[in-house]
Design a protein that fits this description.
Radius of gyration: 20 Å
CATH class of the largest domain: Mainly Alpha
Structural class: mainly alpha
Helix content: over 70%
CATH architecture of the largest domain: Orthogonal Bundle
Number of strands: 0
Largest sheet: none
Strand content: under 5%
CATH topology of the largest domain: Tetracycline Repressor, domain 2
Length: about 190
């Protein structure tokens, strides 16, 4: 009888590897924002201060890098919801998260052409991220309702749709400012009647 080989334990990534990955993702986000999906991966590696081999070790293809940039932005939103909830009052956490969501929508618009270049399109990525985003805001709204900071009839999806709607209606470069003003209006309108 053959003896079963044990699988080697998965090692945690080294600190420098995690740091390099973060730098590559930030550099790629900036590069895709400025130059689109066709940005040279070597230029991204240079901007991140790593060698091309390091970039390709983390992201073997352009598609893998584009997808990772998008996922990173979604993960930042989900993480921020927990951090804001731990550090702020319920309504302030909701406000801060919605303002961060404006930045996410901005990044999504900018990187959308790059995401469209991914084999199979961005649909699967969007579907996976939708539940993370929805879950984050639902928890914040639930917490704000429980504290009495917002009305009981407030729906998390309505807040998201309002912010996303501004991004599609406003064609100017200042839509982010409109969206941030809308966040303040939404928060004020969400307050219970006195």
């Amino acid at each position: 009888m053959k003896k079963k080989r044990s699988q080697p334990a998965q090692r945690k990534p080294r600190t420098d590897a995690l740091r390099n990955r973060r730098r590559i993702l930030e550099g790629a986000k900036e590069a895709f924002t400025r130059h689109g999906a066709s940005t040279s991966l070597d230029d991204i590696a240079n901007q991140a201060g790593v060698g091309a081999g390091t970039l390709y070790r983390h992201f073997p293809t352009r598609d893998a890098l584009i997808e990772a940039v998008y996922r990173s932005e979604v993960e930042k939103l989900a993480t921020a919801a927990h951090e804001f909830a731990a550090a702020m009052s319920p309504v302030e956490a909701l406000r801060a998260w919605l303002l961060l969501f404006v930045d996410y929508v901005t990044a999504k618009h900018i990187i959308a052409p790059a995401l469209n270049s991914v084999a199979g399109g961005p649909t699967k990525l969007y579907e996976g991220s939708r539940s993370l985003v929805q879950g984050a805001i639902e928890e914040l709204v639930k917490r704000a309702k429980k504290s009495g900071d917002v009305r009981r009839d407030i729906d998390a999806s309505d807040l998201l749709r309002a912010v996303i709607g501004v991004s599609y209606v406003s064609s100017g470069s200042d839509w982010q400012q409109s969206a941030k003003r809308l966040v303040e209006i939404l928060i004020a309108g969400s307050r219970p009647a006195e």
